[in-house]
Amino acid sequence: MDLDTIRAFLAVADGHTVTSTAEQVHRTQPAVSRALARLERDVGTPLFQRVGRTLVLTPAGRELARHARDSIDAFERGVRSVQDITAPDAGFVPLAFLHTLGTWLVPELIREFRTQRPNVRFDLRQHGDAGLVDDLLHGVVDLAITGDRPHHPQFTSERLFLEPPDHRLARRRTARLGEVADDQFIALKDGFSLRRVTEDLCAEAGFTPLVGFEGEEVETLRGLVAAGLGVALLPEPRAGATPAAPHLRVTDVPASREIGLAWLRDRELPPASAEFRDHALSSSRRVHASSA
Questions:
Q1: Total structural domains in the chain?
Q2: Domain containing 115: what range?
Q3: Residue 58 binned pLDDT confidence (cut-offs 50, 70, 90)
Q4: Considering 91, 154, 184, 226, which has the largest number of Cβ atoms within 10 A of its Cβ?
């Protein structure tokens, strides 16, 4: 069954003759009649009945027409959407990123990008690392900003920068991670790269962290630390942010995590997504070159 047959069926259902319908769908009158007959065979019941010289819908025909209109409307909306996102001055970027990057990095990259491409639309999705991989593999997003570049044969990824997570304690500037081996840790749930970073760094310092609280947002973890409920390894608050509690730098292990950008290796990115990828990579290189 093709769209022209559905359109012909709906035209006749609206009272048009088979002849005028054939003109609308650019077919001959016999071709439209055969198409409607095939449709009735596919459905398994008559869709029209003749009243005088006019074809009118049967009850089954009325029911099919209702759903057929929804299908045609949905298809036409889809076509308009595709035309919108592929317009030369517009576009569409489906982007996934870690929860921890939604308060600073992603807004900054998008703001800068839209100064040059103000009509580009974004579909933004927040996940842990496992969710980022799934979204890329299933084609839900074109790009993913990750906290640990995924080593997957289907992905290409590049480093954006290294981010030093900070250890938060009371009024000191620095501390050894080993000093809090007996403290209760507050951490992100399994599946987030920062949780893995926390466990790996604690192992390097010679202990396994005792995790008393698990969450999905860095700001929630900061609040729990500020309330005196434990310690956490967290990214340094960005410039201008008001930290919820004092923080200090870890000195006994090289505490850092890599922030990267990943996409499917064998898939050509649509223009808007390719431009945003290039913008994110060049922007991070520019910022970190200037601070070096």
A1: 3
A2: 92-161+258-291
A3: very high
A4: 91
